[in-house]
Amino acid sequence: MSVRGVGIDIVSVDRVERLLQRHGSRFLARCFRPGELPDGADGRRRLDFAAQVAGRWAVKEACLKALGGDVRGIPYRDIEVGRSAGGAPRVVLHGLAAAALAAGGGGTVLASLSHERDAAVGFVVIDR
């Protein structure tokens, strides 16, 4: 394995909960692609949904750090965080994020995330 980039980020679940309360669907539409998030209206507690959103957001931030260089113009929506068939986190890059990966020589984006009541963490490695 040849590591091209590494990124880690931690996100407050309470902060995400406040964003959801204040901006709701506008926040989600700005940062996430359709179908990227689990359905928050399926009976789960709102805090559980906020923790899942925070985990995916942490992976997006970690991915930007792993890409390196000037990533200021890359929208969060260009980094899609989902799950593989086995349940492991899966990252698919689109648009400017995919272009940044290609410009840096390409690679495979590997991710891990975890969340608790208060915080979520995302970790990304880009393997050449």
Quick recap of the structure?
It contains 3 helices and 5 strands; from the N terminus they run βααββαββ.
Helix fraction by DSSP (H/I, runs of at least 4): 25-40%
Number of strands: 5
Stated plainly, the CATH topology is called Ribosomal Protein L22, Chain A
Shape, per Cα inertia axes: globular
CATH class: Alpha Beta
| Main sheet properties | 3 strands, antiparallel
> What's the gyration radius in Å?
14 Å
- CATH architectural designation: Alpha-Beta Complex
Strand order of the largest sheet: 1-5-4
Strand content: 25-35%
Terminal CA distance: 7 Å
Whole-number total of structural domains: 1
Order of helices and strands: EHHEEHEE
Under CATH, the homologous superfamily reads 4'-phosphopantetheinyl transferase domain
Q: Which structural class is indicated by helix and strand composition?
A: alpha+beta
Mean pLDDT: 91
Low-confidence stretches are none
Count, helices: 3
Characterization of the model:
The longest helix has 22 residues, at 46-67. The chain has helices at residues 13-31, 46-67, 95-103; strands at residues 3-12, 79-83, 89-93, 108-115, 119-127. The chain has 128 residues and is an alpha+beta fold. It has 3 helices and 5 strands. The chain has a single domain, classed as 4'-phosphopantetheinyl transferase domain (Ribosomal Protein L22, Chain A).
Write out key terms for the chains shown.
128 residues, alpha+beta, Ribosomal Protein L22, Chain A, 3-stranded antiparallel β-sheet, two-stranded antiparallel ribbon, 5 strands, globular
